[in-house]
Amino acid sequence: MNTVLVTGATGNVGSEVVLALAGKANIRAAVTDVEKAKGRLPPGTEAVRFDFEDASTFAGAFAGVDRLFLMRPPHISDPKVIAPSIEAAKAAGVKQIIFLSLQGAESNSIVPHAKIEKLLLTCGVPYTFLRPSFFMQNLTGQHRDEIRQRGEIFVPAGRGRTSFIDARDIAAVAALALTEDGHENKAYTLTGSEALTYDEVAQILTEVTGRPVRYANPNLVRFVLQKRREGLAWGFVIVMAGIYLTAALGRADGLTDEVPRLLGRAPITVRQFVQDYRSVWLS
Hints:
By secondary structure, this protein is an alpha/beta fold. It has a domain at 3-132 and 166-190: 3-Layer(aba) Sandwich (Rossmann fold). 39% of the residues lie in helices and 17% in strands. The chain has twelve helices and twelve strands. The chain has helices at 12-21, 34-38, 58-62, 83-91, 112-123, 144-150, 167-179, 198-209, 220-229, 234-248, 258-263, 270-276; strands at 3-7, 26-31, 46-49, 67-71, 96-100, 127-132, 134-135, 152-153, 162-165, 186-190, 195-196, 214-215. The strands form three sheets. Strands 3-2-1-4-5-6-10 form a seven-stranded parallel sheet, with helices on both faces. It has a three-stranded mixed sheet with strand order 7-9-11. Strand 2 (26-31), helix 2 and strand 3 form a beta-alpha-beta unit. Helix 1 (12-21) crosses helix 7, helix 4 (83-91) packs parallel to helix 5 (112-123) and helix 8 runs parallel beside helix 12. The chain is globular and about 50 Å long.
């Protein structure tokens, strides 16, 4: 079996990739704190210290690795920070890099994902770009407390429609690319089967949880100021604002058939996702 290094292994997508790879590959989880991560990883998963900003962690993490699942940590907005790890992966003999990019990254030079794609296109290692639409898990992650405590979704997406995708579907596609041949030098735009406004998402949350949830629809300035008050770093806030701006401009509603084509089943819907994670907003 291939040995796969999964970066972001305890995050929304990375943790699902680890689960999807179970029994299909030797899994090495790249984490910043090995002891802390052990309790969050499935049994049998090897944890290794890895830090994009510490080159001394590269050799041990990449030793014997066949394929790499690469994702940009949210706090890193400068793609140049990622570049040394890509070169280290190449030097270590990694045969393929599967990169968690972003829907529309190929035509949106503002987001750092686009610049990382360019690095991978020129590094000489076969790549697979996964370009997912908006994560449903954002609702259980960064927006959990505002939904649970204030009964609102606070994003500057206007009235534009957004195509959402469950991280479990992304992980299932990633597992294919990490364990099967035939996905080299390809890009997959991954979406669910529906594009919804945030008003519609709020309505689904209201119906499933039994608690009223509204879409606040803040303007961009109000959003940025609020997230800064919450303590988020400027770089992270600016990337978030840029991503939600694409929705406000009506550029986040595109749907593809890549998930059903690759997985042989329909994508998970927003309603199913909310039903599966209902307790998150009620605890």
